[in-house]
Specification:
- The chain is of the alpha/beta class and 316 residues long.
- 38% of the residues lie in helices and 11% in strands.
- The protein is globular.
- Bound molecules: pterin-6-yl-methyl-monophosphate.
Length: 316
């Protein structure tokens, strides 16, 4: 049964379930879909498909963060994301921009993005917090230690769960000091970023610890390498990224029952189904034993009224 901070972010939809963020990487080199949506028309078509399948948000990114990736220039990143964001926003799609750069975040917000998703949690660009604060935008602050080229050399922790919580709390304090409103900040423990496979499982299983930081949580395990490792063949061959969606959906259901605010995923339809199953499951688990008189289906998972739960409420 979930008891934790509010599971919504000011300025974004608040259904009584976890939000679904569909991944739209406009990059030539992302680990699971690199190059597929690099062309603007292909990206737009895919973004519309994500919405049709149930994405609440479409997360547009122009920089691959796979381990070892080299960074695009600012101009390359802008050229990749802005046409897609502009067109999707004009179609009333809720777009988040996946960027570590303040300049890209500002341009994306001007183009109609409604959320800044910063995998560096403000560490890659000293201007990021000020830019987000100035714009009044909702912000995802992820745990991060180093750029892609070096991140898998930075996996030393005394206690990964506690160290990630402390490092998140430190960045959170800086974000708040820079003027980002607390109700506009979500946290993300950064699955796959400066973490070994076992450390990812430690972090996923410690959702309660991150709830204690008092902000909505985003969980993004979709197709990541640690799932490929779990599902490897007997000869050690990793399960390829596109064949990790069923395992991703399992992590989605578990994270949503554990109270995640938002799930970021490539395969949106099963994710949208899983968050609805999780919300229904958690609501039933939260019913008092004497509540037989309450009709179980009286409050649909998408009803706005059901979504306006106070902090600490047990119903999703
Ligand atoms: N992972 C990736 C990209 N963006 N954003 C957040 N908030 N959390 C993540 O874990 C995250 C992210 C890398 O995965 P991709 O290459 O599939 O986009």
């Amino acid at each position: 049964m979930y008891v934790g901070p509010p599971r919504h972010l000011a300025g974004l939809p608040q259904p009584a379930r976890a939000l679904v963020m569909g991944v739209l990487n406009v990059t030539p080199d992302s680990f699971s879909d690199g190059g597929r949506w690099a062309d603007t028309d292909a990206a737009l078509a895919h973004g519309r498909r994500l919405v049709a399948e149930g994405a609440d948000l479409v997360d547009v990114g122009g920089e691959s963060t796979r381990p070892g990736a080299t960074r695009p220039s600012v101009q390359e990143e802008l050229d990749r994301v802005l046409p897609v964001i502009t067109r999707l926003a004009a179609e009333d799609v809720l777009v988040s921009v996946d960027t570590m750069r303040a300049e890209v975040a500002a341009a994306a917000l001007d183009a109609g993005a409604v959320l800044v998703n910063d995998v560096s949690g403000g560490r890659a660009d000293p201007d990021m917090f000020g830019t987000v604060a100035g714009a009044g935008a909702p912000y995802v602050l992820m745990h991060w230690r180093a750029h892609s080229a070096a991140m898998q050399q930075q996996t030393d922790y005394t206690d990964v769960v506690e160290d990630v919580a402390t490092e998140l709390a430190d960045q959170l304090a800086l974000a708040l000091a820079a003027g980002i409103a607390p109700e506009r900040i979500a946290l993300d423990p950064g699955i796959g970023f400066s973490k070994t496979a076992d450390q990812n499982w430690d972090v996923l299983a410690a959702t309660e610890r991150y709830h204690a930081l008092g902000h909505p949580l985003l969980v993004a395990a979709s197709r990541k390498r640690f799932l490929g490792t779990l599902l490897a063949d007997a000869d050690g061959t990793l399960r390829p990224p596109v064949d990790r969606d069923d395992a991703t959906t399992a992590t989605t259901a578990l994270a949503a029952v554990a109270g995640a605010w938002c799930i970021r995923a490539h395969a949106v339809r099963p994710t949208a189904d899983a968050v609805r199953v999780a919300a229904r499951w958690a609501r039933q688990a939260a019913r008092p034993p004497t509540a037989d008189s309450q009709p179980a289906d009286s409050q649909p998972a998408d009803s706005p009224a059901a979504g306006s739960q106070p902090a600490g409420s047990v119903a999703p």
